[in-house]
Every structure is written in structure tokens, then in C-alpha cells.
Amino acid sequence: MIPLGLVLVLALFASIVLVVVWTQGLKGLGVYQRPYAELVKLGRWSGMLRPRTSDTPYEVGERLGRQVPRAQPAIDELTDIYVEGTYSSHPPLKDPWPTWLAARRAVIRGLFGRRLGGWFGADESVALPPKGHPELLSRWGARRKQL
Predict the structure, then answer these.
(1) Assign residue 143 a region: left if phi > 0, alpha if psi is -120 to 50, beta otherwise?
(2) What pLDDT, on the 0 to 100 scale, is given for residue 78?
(3) How many other C-beta atoms lie within 10 A of the C-beta of residue 42?
(4) Residue 51, burial from CB neighbour count under 10 angstroms (0-12, 13-18, 19+)
(5) Which residue numbers in the chain have pLDDT < 50?
(6) The Cα angle at residue 37 between residues 24 and 77, in degrees rounded to 5
(7) CB 32 within 8 A of CB 91
(8) Angle between the 34-46 and 72-87 helix axes, to the nearest 10 degrees?
(9) Contact 74, 100 (CB under 8 A)
(10) Using one digit for the tens of pLDDT, what is the confidence trace for 105-144?
(11) Taking a C-beta distance cutoff of 8 angstroms, is the pair 115, 51 a contact?
């Protein structure tokens, strides 16, 4: 049996490591840029998002919105605020934090729910696409096996 003290020390150490890894790369950003950066970081960590350097924030936001349809309006709003604040000559007119704090749970559940469904529960707000399309095989020259 593992002593309770050791479990608590390991949990504390894991928490500290997670906080350090999470905040890495976010320190030099503006207050209005952090929610978008956290959104992209969650997408990368989940494996659902692999942004290229040539992608615009709107392209990244659109891809994330397709992965998490329940949070698409919030993702679009965070992207708009990020672009306005980053690429205009004035700070954004709207504060992104209330939107991000309200949508963060849906984003995490949508991105990690497929991999860790038992922990987060199934996202039943959107029907999953079918796993295969046998009707499309004929377009590529494949034929069904005759029994």
C-alpha cells in the first residue's frame, strides 16, 4: 500500500509541473491575447489542432469550431477579439475573459471528450460522423466483394 503522504506529495508535484507547462509561452502576451492562446494550446494538447505558421487566426478558429461545435460562437468571438487587439492600432473594445471563462468547460469537454469519454462524458450535442462511407468506394474504383 502506498502511503497517503507520498500520494499527496506526488499530486502536488504533478500540479506544479502542470502549472509551469501551462503558463510557458503565455507570459509575454497581452491580457486580451491570453484566452485565444490558451484556446490554441488546448487544441494542440488534445491533438485535434495542428496549426501551420501560415494559418491565420480565423482559419485556426474555424478548425477549432468544427471540432467543438457547441463552443463555436465563443471561439469565433475570442478570435475576433484577438485579431482586433493584435492587428489594429487600438485595444479591443470587448473583454475576452468572460467569454473564455464561460466557454472553457465546453471547449475542454469537446476536445478531450473523445479520448477520455469516461471522465468527461459523451458530448451528445452533435452527432458524430459515420466511421465509413462504403457508397464512396465505387468512385475510387473499388468494388464490393461478391459473396
Answers:
(1) beta
(2) 95
(3) 20
(4) middle
(5) none
(6) 160
(7) yes
(8) 130
(9) yes
(10) 888 888 887 666 656 555 555 555 555 666 655 555 555 5
(11) no
Rounded CA gap, 54 and 43, in Å? 17
Residue 117, pLDDT score:
64
- Count the Cβ atoms, other than its own, within 10 Å of residue 46: 20
The contacts of residue 70 (CB under 8 Å, 6+ apart) are 106, 110, 123, 125, 126
> Can you state the angle between helices 34-46 and 57-67, rounded to 10 degrees?
50
